[in-house]
Amino acid sequence: MAFESLTNRLSKALKNITGKGKLTEANMNEMLREVRMSLLEADVNYRVVKDFIEHVKIKAMGVEVMSSLNPGQMVVKIVHDEIVELLGTQEQGLNYKTAGITTVMMVGLQGTGKTTAAAKIANVIRKKQSRKPLLVACDLIRPAAVEQLKTLGASIDVEVFSLGIETPALTTAKKALEYAQEQGYDTVIFDTAGRLHIDEELMQELADIKAAVHPDDILLTVDAMTGQDIVNVAQSFHDQLAVTGLVLTKLDGDARGGGVLSVRAITQVPVKFVGLGEKIDDLDIFYPERMADRILGMGDIMTLVEQAQDKMDMEVSQKSAKRMMSGQFTLEDMLEQFRQLKKMGSLGGMMKLIPGMSQMAGKIDEAKTDKQMKMFEAIILSMTKEERQNPDILKASRKNRIAAGSGTKVSDINQLINRYEKTKVAMKQMGAMANGGKMPNMKG
Ligand code: GDP
């Protein structure tokens, strides 16, 4: 993975300062120096580094006034937040049109992974966002780019539009749009020509295609294996075409990574996707927060632990877990569970953090789960204390009253009770297993 040595150095510098109970000017300066060196060594652009250190310094000066966390941890948080800031704060999806065909133009130098990224994006939006994409082969410069796109398209069940390498790219682009309209495609992704270096002819061709297809997104592929030069290349593309998103490719390699870190900061173009390997599934939507964790060596799993520790009242949870596993599970416990889950963020989001579960996370209909949890919460809140502790007393008249009070139907209440009964049984089984010694660490 890229950024490895950056991660090692940064986490060492940060560990050092976390160990210090008190922040002094001396240990703060030492930490800042280390962070600065780590970034420069990783090939991050010097201007970016300068701003970065400046921001951390200013924020860190205010640390003492904040009373939570220890000062060292606070500084780590400041560095972390600054990296998130550097990477772009929020994830950014494609700029889909609300009506009509969304057009996406891929641009970038030859070999950066443009053709591969075009297919990967088509694949991801088809599978995860139920889009109907058409790929268009407009890269007539690199030998075999058209064939490559066709092969990739076939492997992911996405049609590739091509008029062969004799037809000018601009004509192909225009015809592709007409074709997409006729065939009911909702997203058209144009793979355009790259060169080894930026030249005028290339930029003119791209500008012409841009004028013809009015892209909703112009995505520039930038290769993590390129060093600092990448910043200038990206800036030129941006100046001439007004790029709307970056695709950072080859982050799976052992690149120092500083170049790609600088591109967003200097161009202010958001990163939308990251390429993590040669295979078609090796593409991720870009999450700045997670990337920052990774760069700082915190690891996603650490985030999960932190969230759990921060936000859950551990004592309460342990106590109720014990009671629940002995079979005394009430609707009040269930309400508490819903609330804990809500505090920890979405279920799907949490699952993405757990190794091996991220595939499943995509299958959860978050909006639906969320709505259902809210409804269950409203129902429980409309119950009396007695009803929550002993749901057996819930007969028709009580259910009618609760339904009216919570704005739900009796069938919703039955659904909740059903879910409650199942959870209760499951809890009891877990308790039995723990007591039987099969899961010793569940005890206590
Ligand atoms: P283009 O000239 O920009 O269209 O580049 P290609 O899409 O043909 O990619 C160039 C090479 O980089 C190919 O061998 C790809 O398999 C490889 N490649 C593309 N993206 C990635 C990536 O994220 N990780 C790795 N390891 N290789 C990649």
TrEMBL record:
Residues 270-283 form the SRP54-type proteins GTP-binding domain. Keywords: Cytoplasm, GTP-binding, Hydrolase, Nucleotide-binding, Ribonucleoprotein, RNA-binding, Signal recognition particle. GO terms for molecular function: 7S RNA binding; GTP binding; GTPase activity. Composed of three domains: the N-terminal N domain, which is responsible for interactions with the ribosome, the central G domain, which binds GTP, and the C-terminal M domain, which binds the RNA and the signal sequence of the RNC. This is Signal recognition particle protein. Its EC number is 3.6.5.4. GTP binds at residues 108-115, 191-195, 249-252. It comes from the Bacteria. Part of the signal recognition particle protein translocation system, which is composed of SRP and FtsY. One of its GO terms (cellular component) is signal recognition particle. It is found in: Cytoplasm.
